[in-house]
Write a structure and sequence with these properties.
about 220 residues, mainly alpha, flat
Length: about 220
């Protein structure tokens, strides 16, 4: 229904805004702690955790309602299977993220140094943003945009060949430019001369030559 479309679209959009704000807040906090040589707290503020729990609950309820409406078996074998799987993964990663945050809070309260490598799991929160793509499918007035995206997916094969051709060209000319630079800077003093600094920076290696060609394209 139209009401469901708006509810689902606004829920996904507000969740994306929340994730972006949380990311910026944590980055700013870490930057503010840096001048004092202090490590920023590993856990997010309690308010963020509450909002995350609310979003996770709402998305779980929304998925459950769609499952009940479509039927247990039909929900798993319908043409929307991959979209449903995306919802399952996004909700699952959200729950994992909340568990990591709760453990981090407990570690901080006990005076521990934090979760160490477990905090790397926070990178998984980016997966929740994939749900934003679903807005294009849910909201019917995105029909033209949806058609354009499907057209892009249909042209991926041609795009892949273009990337391969450009990579080969960059590789060939990169070898030529790097070889020429190496031959020109054969003398030791030229390698350390200020006039050749840009040459060494942009064409001193095969990788830098290829990157320079790409940037100049």
């Amino acid at each position: 229904s139209k009401q469901y479309e708006w509810f689902s679209g606004l829920l996904i959009f507000s969740n994306a805004v929340y994730i972006g704000y949380e990311c910026e807040f944590l980055a700013t906090r870490a930057r503010n702690y840096a001048p004092d040589d202090q490590a920023a707290p590993l856990s997010s503020p309690a308010g963020f955790l509450v909002l995350q729990a609310c979003f996770c609950l709402l998305f779980t309820v929304e998925l459950g309602l769609r499952w009940v409406a479509a039927g247990l078996y039909e929900f798993l074998v319908s043409e929307d299977f991959w979209w449903n799987l995306l919802d399952f993964c996004a909700i699952g990663f959200g729950i994992i993220d909340m568990v990591v945050e709760l453990i981090s809070i407990q570690q901080n309260r006990r005076g521990g140094i934090g979760l160490g490598t477990i905090t790397a799991l926070r990178v998984l929160r980016v997966v929740r943003l994939v749900r934003v793509v679903k807005i294009i499918r849910v909201m019917k007035f995105f029909r033209e945009l949806r058609m354009m995206i499907y057209s892009i997916f249909g042209d991926l094969k041609s795009l892949l060949w273009i990337v391969i051709v450009l990579t080969v060209l960059f590789y060939m000319f990169g070898i030529a430019l790097t070889s020429g630079t190496t031959a020109y800077l054969v003398l030791t003093e030229k390698w350390h001369h200020e006039e050749t600094e840009d040459m060494r920076k942009y064409f001193g290696s095969l990788w830098s030559s290829m990157l320079s060609l790409f940037m100049a394209m």
